[in-house]
Amino acid sequence: MSTSTAVPATTGPTTQRGDAVALYQLPGHLIRRCHQIAVALFFEECAAFDITPQQYAVLRVLAANDGVDQITLAGLAAFNRTTAGEIVERLEGAGLVARRNSKLDRRTKNIFITETGRRLLADANAAVKRVQERLLIPLDRDERARFIEYLARIASENNELSRAPLRPIARGRGGNRTSGPA
Amino acid sequence: MSTSTAVPATTGPTTQRGDAVALYQLPGHLIRRCHQIAVALFFEECAAFDITPQQYAVLRVLAANDGVDQITLAGLAAFNRTTAGEIVERLEGAGLVARRNSKLDRRTKNIFITETGRRLLADANAAVKRVQERLLIPLDRDERARFIEYLARIASENNELSRAPLRPIARGRGGNRTSGPA
DNA sequence: AACTGATGATCAGCATACTGAGTAACTGGC
DNA sequence: GCCAGTTACTCAGTATGCTGATCATCAGTT
Question: Do the chains contact at B137 and A157, CB–CB below 8 Å?
Answer without folding.
Answer: yes
